[in-house]
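This section describes the prediction task in plain terms. A model, or a person checking by hand, is given the sequence of a single protein chain and must write out its three-dimensional structure as a string of tokens. No templates, partner chains or ligands are provided. The sample shown here is typical of the held-out split.
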Amino acid sequence: MGHRMLWFTKKIEFCNIVEADLWGDIVGLQSTWRLGIRQIQVEIDNNGAVKLILEKSSSGKSLTILQHMDAMLACEWNVQLKHILRDSNRVADVLVEHVWKLPVGLHEFTQHPAEIVRKIRSGDPELG
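The expected answer:
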């Protein structure tokens, strides 16, 4: 089985950090499902978001996005959630900088965004 990395950003107008992370996770899962990929490891750098996702009951979840997450995780596929340290996810910071230049909505990339590739090739220490 091969490895594939999905690049996307979603600019939303108002939400807190946990909600933004959850939106990113949901959009990533939806995009992955749409591509027909049925085995995925999701790396999440927000421990609070991971804890909310892993709560046993969705009935007590007040955020609608968590109910959508539960529905996606209940689909017939193998999804592993993995908490990673924030320092391991510096590429996300570059994507956040990039999204401010885009209109509100979802933006998927078929290739690595050039700005990130430049920073990686230059050995930018920010990208860990």
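For orientation: The chain has a mean pLDDT of 75.
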